[in-house]
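Task: complex structure prediction.
Instruction: return structure tokens for all chains below.
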Amino acid sequence: MLKATFKALLILSLMTISLGFTLYANKVQLSVTLSKYQKYRHLCNGTNETKKPPPYRMDPNRMSVHSNLIYPGNYHFILDDTEVCRSIIPFLVLIVPVAPANWKARDAVRKTWGSETRVQGELVQTVFLLGLPSSGNIVVQQEHVLKENLQHHDLIQSDFIDSYHNLTIKTMVIMDWLASRCHMVPYAMKIDSDMFLNVENLVKMLKMPGTPTKEYATGRLKSQTPVVRAKDSQWYVPEDIYPERYFPTYAVGMGYIFSLDMTRRFVEVSKSVPSIYVEDAYVGLCMKMLGLEFTPPPNRNHFRLYLFEYNRCSMSTGITHILKSPEQLMTYWTNLKKPGPTC
Ligand SMILES: *[C@@H]1O[C@H](CO)[C@@H](O)[C@H](O)[C@H]1NC(C)=O
Ligand SMILES: *[C@@H]1O[C@H](CO)[C@@H](O)[C@H](O)[C@H]1NC(C)=O
Ligand SMILES: *[C@@H]1O[C@H](CO)[C@@H](O)[C@H](O)[C@H]1NC(C)=O
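Output:
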């Protein structure tokens, strides 16, 4: 009992410190922050909030009720003390959406591609974006997040509930963070934590003559993707939300790149884009609404999907591969960095 009280006090003081930082850095009005703080505390009160099944599955039409749920202006940053885009202005920001509890994946990224900060003479920085813990022991998870950030200062946390069906919110919060902090930065990439990323090849591609510096978005493009209408699918989209049979062309969500000017435009247009929970198709809808098209990558093989077994040649020539686990990322990375021929 006493231990629990002490723990709660510790978390509370840590939260106060991080809120203090946010307050100081963003000059947010005290009252606004305090009400957010109350909301947030309530969520961390070990309630059964988290045991609810995702409302999306129970009642897909909920989405139309919350049609404005995705607009990132609805959410606030509760942890945001990274120097990235403050004192450090990189050429490329790698921003990784990750669940609060997935510290293992963050560690693997920090030890592999996230550690590549000087590439082709350019500065590259990696940060992680998290929502609030949504299941499991949320108090312990939040405590871990705060401690981890004290050590690395690379976590950005917003006050939406971090869950699978909130991935579109997460993506738009990423856009919002970039738009409001990183306007001096030429490019950003949204990249999942379970990816292998060849930063060298990515920067080379971005520095190639002819790569657009404005209105640019690229990745593994997917066209004519049918909209899923099976109600039990995790990708189900109700017809009244989005009536078309196909999605417009979009870049597969595992990792896509955009020039920074796009971020503000995505945020603005998200007020009028149908709220679908398929995050990469949503970005495609934003592009379409803006009257813009994705730029195909110079080489389609740059953005690969699953890699079933280690392939040194493919990893050394491509940009992305989807992996199975943080352990696999560490093993493959170590192997690739060994001297010797790659192909
Ligand atoms: C936390 O939960 C306890 C018991 O469920 C309740 O009495 C208390 O008011 C809650 N505190 C907050 C801040 O919600
Ligand atoms: C949460 O707990 C309260 C009582 O502690 C209970 O009345 C309520 O039904 C629970 N909600 C869910 C969704 O389990
Ligand atoms: C998504 O986040 C919003 C805002 O935090 C929350 O109200 C909603 O319950 C979340 N949805 C799911 C499915 O977690």
